[in-house]
Amino acid sequence: MVDPTFDSRQRVEAVSPAIGAAETAAPAPLIVGNETIPRGRRVRLDLPVARLPTGTMMSLPITIIHGKKPGPRLWLSAAIHGDELNGVDIIRRVVRELKPHRLTGTVIAVPVVNVFGLIEQSRYLPDRRDLNRSFPGSARGSMAGRLAALFMREVVSQCTHGIDLHTAAIHRINLPQVRANLQNPDTYAFAQAFGAPIMINSSHRDGSLRQAAAKRQIPTLLYEAGEALRFDAIAIQTGIDGIYRAMAHLGMYAPPATSPPVTLEAGETRWVRASRGGIWHRSIDLGDEVKPRQPLGFISDTFGDKPVQVRSPLAGIVIGHGQNPLVNQGDALVHVASIKTDDVPASDDRQDS
Q1: CATH number, domain with residue 307
Q2: Which residues, given as ranges, of the chain have pLDDT below 50?
Q3: Which of 114, 165, 263, 274 has a C-alpha 20 to 30 A away from that of 242?
Q4: Rounded to 5 degrees, what are φ and ψ at 224?
């Protein structure tokens, strides 16, 4: 169990000889994919994953920016679900601007974890497994298990902190938000520093990357923003700014010139679901404030007959909604987050993306 008083910045001295005290006394080499990464360098690697039926080797693309001074090691990952693309561009733009001589510590960036899914424009791997339900993986397991094990060995095990970038699932869209274990003071401060519009206390889903990292006492943020198979300029810029603020918080990079925005903390989140099938006519947008019993839209048949009002069950902010107007009974329509004012239970939407 993670000690809630544990300060993750102490990981640089305390977690392991490879990352900790040995590095401050006599810097230990950083080795990724059997390649030693010199300090003050930017290195691009392609780690072999598996061969396609054609014999073509699929590889995991990694960029390592190894600062001149020792410090925290932060991983950035995206496209664990192959159709979630905002994080790919966030990492591209962050990595392009990072300068090794200005960096304290190390950034290990993996813009596309699920290369197979990216090519197929699919959330899943070719074996239909969800990679974010397959951690920590197994070197002798399924394709998903082997890829998860490779990522844990070559990336997560090297790091003191992590930021995993996601979008909403297909046919949904999310307001930029951070999900994390906010009951841990260090992770809470990490999430606050990121500065997303809202942060949600979220427990770990079995098999998720965040759960596997937590078992190694690595504070990890999950950033959700935008929708699958689309670039969203606001979601991308919010993610870029958040990463730089998080790095400044860890002492890795110079603080940004602007002050971080106010981050709201969700006390509860709830999906409002369709009570019947039909055509969904939404009347609210991301970021809107809603009141209890406020109409969010209505469901009707194709002629508009017998409309059924859909109302918010609580006061809060719209942090996500479905995009497809064709709905079946039970489909998720609108995701509402109440804003925390007192100590309240964690969100009922506790799964990682």
Answers
A1: 2.40.50.100
A2: 1-25, 343-346, 348, 350
A3: 114
A4: -115, 130
Sort strands 264-273 and 198-201 into parallel, antiparallel or unpaired.
Answer: parallel
Q: How far is CA 276 from CA 280, 296, 333, in A?
A: 10, 15, 11
Q: Are residues 32 and 122 in the same domain?
A: yes
For residue 105, give both structure tokens.
């510590």
For residue 240, CA distances in Å to 81, 89, 146, 194 come to 19, 9, 30, 9
Express each pLDDT in 183-199 by its tens digit: 999 999 999 999 999 99
Residue 109's Cβ-count burial label (10 Å; 0-12, 13-18, 19+) is: buried
pLDDT of residue 4: 36
In a domain, 346, yes or no: no
Q: What is the pLDDT of residues 271-300, one digit of tens each?
A: 999 999 999 999 999 999 999 999 999 999
Tokens of 111: 């813009």
Domain, as residue range, for 77: 8-249
Same domain, 294 and 245: no
What is the rounded CA–CA span in Å between residue 319 and residue 336? 6
Percent of the chain with pLDDT over 90: 82
Are residues 147 and 85 part of one domain? yes
State how many domains the chain has.
Answer: 2
Residues 91, 224, single domain; the answer is yes
